[in-house]
Amino acid sequence: MNTTYDVKFSQVQQRSNRGMPVYVARWRVAGKEKSKSFRTKGLANAFMSDLRQAAKAGEEFDVATGLPVSMLAPEATGPSFLEFAQAYVLRRWNMSAARTRETDAYALLSLIPALVADAPRRPPADDLREVLRIHALLPEQRRTDLTPTQASVLSWLERASLPLTALGEAHVLRAALAAISVTFAGEPAGANTVRRKRAVLHHLLEHAVEQKVFSSNPLDEIKWTVPKAVTAVDPRTVVNPAQAKQLLDAIPKVGRKRGPRLKALFACIYYAALRPEEAADLRQRNCTLPESGWGLIVLEKARPQGTKRWTNSGETHESRSLKHRADKETREIPIPPVLVAILREHIATFGTAEDGRIFTTRTGGTYSSSAHSYVWQEARKLALTPAQVASSLAARPYDLRHAAVSLWLNAGVPAVEVAKRAGHSVDVLLRVYAKCMDGQQEQINSKINSALDE
């Protein structure tokens, strides 16, 4: 709802309509002329008196209708964007993973504070986002109790939030797109971030279409170029087998506790192309580890890291179905003898958790992504040259997975088999790793030369 305190009143004027007197109440709201006709002067004066009393009481006036908020019919306003966004989050809660819930909320932290009326005493942006994060965008049983100051911030937001129907107007949608195009600090946001937030807005409006608020998605009518995001792996991040071995050998040298317990996890990312969250939930029963030859991993679950407020258990890590797979669907990955040996040694040295997980802290917990990152960065300093450390080469543990898939493709393994082992579709695989498939460059160039010589 777009509201204002800028209201000016005129006198009731008499007009004639087909010989009958008509009394017209006139006033201006935010500079826009408003009028309403009555059969008698008394009714017109009473209406103007109501408007003046509302203005005197400090009420906000709706710019669209010209009426004070207290005089708006409920059906004229419908749900506010805040109310609809809250319902959207709760409707999707039970069928969404923790990271999806967090992605939805992160987008709404940008959108909800932007889609408000220009009302006085606006709270700071950080305070608005805080009450949304800890209270308004969570199920009731998970909400943090608000302080009096936070309660007043939420109250302001509830009053100021635009009606959902306002998103049918182009200028409102452009304000929303502008909000998701910058970070909370006001800097230009990354392309992937903008695309994710726009996807949330688009999906929310699709729900509004389903509920007959709009006949079609109004966002589809806005001419706005979605920023291009980099989806292909940068070959400069991909290590060769010798570099990978140097990095894995350096990991146990990092500290006395974390490094030795994490070498086999990083080896799973490189030799089996596991995602870090898949390695985190790997259990002994998932592994066939013969004394010699190739082994087998049958993945059942992943253990992604999330923020406690968004997980089902209220814990940082919880087991989930595999990415892009149905519940209880598994993925088989044959593993080379070198990884079989590393896993056998790890289990013999550190054992497993009570639930069978292979990679745990000394107390049976799950290592955080920050712990992985710390060990990895220290290993890079030990295994790589200063120039390589300063470069993007294997900058993240996840780059080991990219190296594995690139190695398989360049070794001539059919794309269908690589996609099956890596947990990709063939289409995504070829698009993401297009720049890394350079193993047949000389052969291809030779064929082109032959064709040119004919």
UniProtKB/TrEMBL annotation:
It comes from the Bacteria. GO terms for biological process: DNA integration; DNA recombination. Signal peptide: none annotated. Gene3D superfamilies: Intergrase catalytic core. Residues 315-327 have a biased composition (Basic and acidic residues). PANTHER family: PHAGE INTEGRASE-RELATED, PROPHAGE INTEGRASE INTD-RELATED. This is Site-specific integrase.
